[in-house]
Amino acid sequence: MASEPVDVWAMADLVTPFAVRTAATLRVADIVQDGPVPLDEIAKRSETRADPLGRVLRFLVRRGIFTEPEPDVFGPNEASRSLQSNAPGGSREWLDLDGAVGRADLAFVELIEQVRGHHPAYRAAFGRSFREDLAHSPQLSDSFDDLMESKSGEFVPSVAASLAWDRFDQVTDVGGGKGVLIAEIVERYPAVRGTVVDLAGPARAAEDYLESRGVRDRAEVVVGDFFDPLPAGADAYVLCDVLSDWEDEDAVRILTRCAEAAGPESSVIIIELLPDPDGEFTETDLRMMIYVGGRMRDMDRTERITAAAGLFVAAVTTLDDGHGIIECLPDR
Ligand SMILES: C[S@@+](CC[C@H](N)C(=O)[O-])C[C@H]1O[C@@H](n2cnc3c(N)ncnc32)[C@H](O)[C@@H]1O
Fold first, then answer.
1. Taking every annotated instance into account, which residue ranges of this chain make up the domain O-methyltransferase dimerisation (predicted)?
2. How many angstroms separate the alpha carbon of residue 32 from the centre of ligand 1?
3. Domain ranges for the chain
């Protein structure tokens, strides 16, 4: 079967990604969103130097992002609009070099160190782990919580719609972040009560978020560490995009805490991206490896870690975006 030739040189280019990320970080697309703006003004508003900024923007114009209708004046185009802040389906916040994920991407320059077995890439790049960075920096931590919330856009409603969550009286979202999924579930199923368990920072954000969604009366927040015993008595314990942050041994410890809290009658529900033909799974696998030393898992591997925690996979629902909702029960 004929396939497209692979342009390895273009694939390995670092100039374009860094130019795009620099423009994203400086919010140039926001500055020019209403029409062409002189370079000096863009430099002033982005607190940068006009000469290097102009050279970056001229390069991006050649790549099809922004326009230069007259010398040293830059304007928007369709491509630049997707770099505006909060653009629907946009990428600015993910590419922002001052944000949690844009910064973490910079650790890829140390991929070779990790592959050679010398150092974890993130620590080699920044001197401490991703989690230590979030714990030290409220700005990075808030940025990460916001990115997790934005990722949730279409995904969370589809998770809430794809399972009959009203089978459960009480759902506990372990490592539930700001509580976006719990808010969606209790909003959609008025008889269900929810709990978010997370570390202190995200738990604080969850209190505010659940309040803002008007579901605080049916959704509580518990500050907790999922390596410690979890609040018992829920009918379902959810781990959404949590286990892929961890290597197998830690993932089994987290699952074991969920299984202990769940007892003999309740479900543990894992939500993770499953292997796909277009490569998102393998790309995310590398990101997990570099950012946090985690990994993506196919169903065989997921079944191995659930079995090690005393659970078995009872049902899998696959979502259009490639995530699986994997319902596990105690293996009695
Ligand atoms: C990738 S985020 C997923 C958040 C949320 N479940 C979602 O799908 O958007 C991982 C979450 O695990 C939380 N987390 C990390 N370590 C934790 C720990 N030891 N105990 C409890 N939560 C933890 C993080 O704070 C973060 O909210």
1. 14-83
2. 36
3. 8-97, 105-134, 141-330
Q: How far apart are the first and last CA of the chain?
A: 49
Task: Give, for all 332 residues of the chain, the pLDDT tens digit.
Answer: 557 789 999 999 999 999 999 999 999 999 999 999 999 999 999 999 999 999 999 999 999 999 999 999 999 999 999 999 988 878 999 999 999 999 999 999 999 999 999 999 999 999 999 999 999 999 999 899 888 877 767 889 999 999 999 999 999 999 999 999 999 999 999 999 999 999 998 899 999 999 999 999 999 999 999 999 999 999 999 999 999 999 999 999 999 999 999 989 899 999 999 998 887 899 999 999 999 999 999 999 999 999 999 999 999 999 998 999 999 999 87
**Beta strand 37-38 with 73-75: parallel, antiparallel or unpaired?**
antiparallel
Ligand 1 site-directed mutation target among 148, 159, 182, most atoms within 8 Å of CB? 148
267 within 8 A of 261, measured Cβ to Cβ: no
Ligand 1 centre from 251 Cα, in Å?
12
For domain 8-97, which architecture applies? Answer: Orthogonal Bundle (1.10)
Distance CA 305, CA 100 (A): 29
Atom of ligand 1 nearest to the CA of 149: 9
Architecture in CATH of 141-330: 3-Layer(aba) Sandwich (3.40)
